[in-house]
Amino acid sequence: MCSFSRELAASSTETHVLKRATLAPTLDFVVLPLEERTVRPILDALPQGKIFRGIIHVQVEKDGVLAFGAYNSFSPGCVATGAAVPVSLLEQLKKRGIIESFAEGKENKASGTT
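Structure (tokenized):
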């Protein structure tokens, strides 16, 4: 379980874009503002060494649109990005071995390496 500081304004309420990806069993659900000033406090609150093992789904919203979604512990075929994530970034992530592959399309689909 992660514990986020009050300054992050964490919420457990779904938004019109960010929804629970697993209905049963009921898992923890948190919405955090992802901004330059909040990245370090968010990372500091995560259990070390368990970023991908302890977090089942990650969704990032930008300007009211789902920009990034990783589901089922970043399983291959379960990661997708929208237009807010440039193909050049996906190419860098592939080169660094963070993702195995991606396919360009209406949404970019990336396969994780975990």
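The mean pLDDT is 75. Residues 6-112 form one domain.
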